[in-house]
Structures are given as C-alpha cells and as structure tokens.
Design brief:
Helix content of chain B: under 10%
Order of helices and strands of chain B: EEEEEEEEEEE
Distance between the termini of chain A: 36 Å
Oligomer: heterodimer
Order of helices and strands of chain A: EEEEEEEEEEE
Largest sheet of chain B: 6 strands, mixed
Number of strands of chain B: 11
Largest interface: A-B, 30 and 27 residues
Largest sheet of chain A: 7 strands, mixed
Strand content of chain B: over 45%
Radius of gyration of chain B: 14 Å
Number of helices of chain B: 0
Strand content of chain A: over 45%
Number of helices of chain A: 0
Shape of chain A: globular
Amino acid sequence: NAGVMQNPRHLVRRRGQEARLRCSPMKGHSHVYWYRQLPEEGLKFMVYLQKENIIDESGMPKERFSAEFPKEGPSILRIQQVVRGDSAAYFCASSPGGTGYTSGANVLTFGAGSRLTVL
Amino acid sequence: GENVEQHPSTLSVQEGDSAVIKCTYSDSASNYFPWYKQELGKRPQLIIDIRSNVGEKKDQRIAVTLNKTAKHFSLHITETQPEDSAVYFCAASMGGGYQKVTFGIGTKLQVIP
C-alpha cells in the first residue's frame, strides 16, 4: 500500500498563476481532507470530500480556491491567481469513511504535503 | 462548528522528565480524539487516539486521558527522550457520516538532553 500520495512535492508559482495540487488517497479510502499549514502554525482545515461530493468546505476561501474528488483519479486542490499569502504547505489526508460508530472510519493518514511558494 | 484549543504552545523538558499537553473541545457530539506528531519537515503521523467510550488509553510511554463531562483530553509522555522533540497536535471528530477532523494549534515539544 503506497499510502497517501501527493504531488507535486514542491511547486513554485508567480503571482497571478494557477496552482494545482493532487492527492491520491490510500487504497480503500473514500474520504479526502485538505489542510493548510503556514510556517510555525497549525493544521487549518480547508475542505472535506468524498468521491464526487464536497462534504464540508467551510475552511476554504470563497474566492480563488476550489477542490474536487472525481469518480476516477486523484483529488485536486486548485488555487487560481495565486498571491504571496498562499505560500504554505498543503497536506492531504484520507480516511476509510463509513457510517455509524465505525472504528477507524475517521482515522486520518497524511500525505507528505505539497509546498507551494509564490514569488 | 467544532473548536479545539490546545496548550501550551511550546514546552521544554529535561530528558527523562514527563510532558503533558492539554486540549479542550467545544462540540459535545465529538467522540474521537486523535493525537498526531509532526517532526520538522515531515507529515503528521498518528501516535495514539481515544474514543469517547474510554477514559484512558496507554501505549508504552504515551497515554491519553479523556474527560467528556469537562470536554477536555490530555497527552502524557513519560521518560521523555530527545527523539520525542516534535510538534504535537490534538484533534476532535464526530463519528457517523460526518467526520470532519478539527486540529488544535499544536504544541512544540523540546526535550533537552
């Protein structure tokens, strides 16, 4: 099991460009989460998705940011018209999901992160 | 939504001493409380977790306690070692179909040899 795969690991963009970050969850996991981490700061929740469905996007800025988790392929976090303040590490995590009080249903496994630098 | 507060933000202990990190949560529906360790430049990794039907859980030198009435939970590390130096995050989550996991701000633990 390759774990949660994120790419690119490092991405450099100039102001105004677009950034696309990809996340492939662990095999068998149907839930994906995106978190942003600024230097010396905590993990700030952005969005929580299931296949083809956004469950909670309350932590994601309304403008310029979007996320998807299509039926086939990885989850994608897209940042349009990047600004310097978008520079951060973006971590993806996945979980098995499930309904009811299921042991392990919401245990997160993190990817290695994608570090975005905006020049 | 859920709000998780964590303290202290930084903690320095001598090697061999104990370290305690405390967290509180706001949503009484939360029933799953994991702890993650993040070494410098690495991904957060689960070190221990506890569910609301359990008051305490121990794994070698680490233990977690949960007080559902007071809505707080703690991480205890005994006989600290330099390799315990890292940032530790507490988190809270509800079970069922909605499983958003909310993290605390993190505690930077430094173990001084």
